[in-house]
Amino acid sequence: MRNIDYFRNKKVTVVGLARSGLACAQLLSDLGAEVSVTDCNDTPAVRLNAAQLKEKNIQFESGRHTPEFIAGRDFIVISPGVTNTSLPVTWAQELAIPVIAEIEVAWMVCPACVIAVTGSSGKTTVATLIGKVLEASGKRVFVCGNIGTPFCGEVAKMNPDDFVSLEVSSFQLEAIRYFKPKIAVMLNFSRNHLDRHKDMREYLDAKKRIFMNQGEDEFLVLNKQDPVLKRLAGETKAKVVYFSGTGQFNPNQAAVAAVSSILGINKGLCARVCADFKGLEHRLEYVSRINNVTFINDSKATTVESAVWAIKNISSPVILIAGGRDKGVDYRGIIDVSRKKVKEVIVIGEARQKIEDALRGALPLNDASTLEEAVRKAFHDAASGDCVLLSPMCSSFDMFSDYEERGKVFKKAVHALAQK
Q1: pLDDT at position 309, please?
Q2: Is 195 a residue whose pLDDT tops 70?
Q3: Is the N or C terminus of the chain more exposed, i.e. has fewer CB atoms within 10 Å?
Q4: Who's near 262: CB < 8 A, 6+ residues apart?
Q5: Which CATH number does 11-97 carry?
Q6: Fold entry, domain 285-418
Q7: Which long-range contacts (CB under 8 A, 24 or more apart) does 30-37 make?
Q8: Using an 8 Å Cβ cutoff, are 107 and 178 in contact?
Q9: Domain ranges in the chain?
């Protein structure tokens, strides 16, 4: 690692104890920092992670935030789910204590070449595919981010000749200071996360931070078919490389091909890897076929654009299960693609009323109080040859800890049908 003495003897509080917060706290402790952790939740998952902190004598509080865990610190590290208006951030700002993101900590000590991928949708797929292409070309690569493996948890294993394919969200980018990927990829930009960002301008400004520290030795990969992103070429000092969907590559694959070309990787190898890629769990994942009704788990689809993509790529009639916590999106965006294909929309979660209001009169609607009930209703209403698609267009945090838990509950409910 580089800069390994930077954190030694620093007093640091990590805010949030999900996967990334835990990994960050452990890394800082290993680097010789005096670490504390605060989390406003007191759930079984938090308590399980807190047990691992005790092994390193890391001070911890849960179920609340107190000023004592902020005062006197050299800096505060926030997890992606922590907002700029949270109490710890407010207290830190009042005390002029720097606030940085978890990915900043990892980047500061990372010796490897970092490829960072952001966008309103497709980040996980593209970051994974970049990793597979690099691996196929003989490179040692770490795929990190919201994919499930925190950057901080892997960085100690990395060498200067290695690569990191890193999925980064607007939440993570809000609190970076010096983070500077060798290659930054911006896939697309559409209405999203307006439950956190006050408007689209603020959301875009957060995304643009991915290239704010880049210079002439770095690369910015932009979607030429996205009018918002295309205009960003004039705002960067980095070398701009464009991509666009073609007959050979869809837009996600074209972004991977652009990164491959920068790294000198053969285009044919990239094409073979993309062709062999079978997809990821919770992303258009085939679950089962029961009485000739197919069930598809697309729990990672937390935007309207992701749901549109899913509906377009399913050839059979669809019964759509959607809903969760609203992110400020416009659900009417699915109407055009759904008119001749979606037989029914079964709505769940906090956003249920908003989705129903947006789609009423355009698509047949039903609702359910739980995801399990929605699966049962969908199966009851489905005809032979139909597809039941979970593509929520919302975050999972009203009912589940994350999209992965939501997808697993969906699959469990489907498998329960098969046993009846």
Answers
A1: 86
A2: no
A3: C
A4: 183, 219, 221, 241
A5: 3.40.50.720
A6: Protein-Tyrosine Phosphatase; Chain A (3.90.190)
A7: 30/56, 30/156, 31/4, 31/6, 31/7, 31/109, 32/5, 32/7, 32/8, 33/7, 33/8, 33/9, 34/9, 34/10, 35/59, 36/11, 36/12, 36/60, 36/61, 36/69, 36/73, 37/13, 37/61
A8: yes
A9: 11-97, 104-276, 285-418
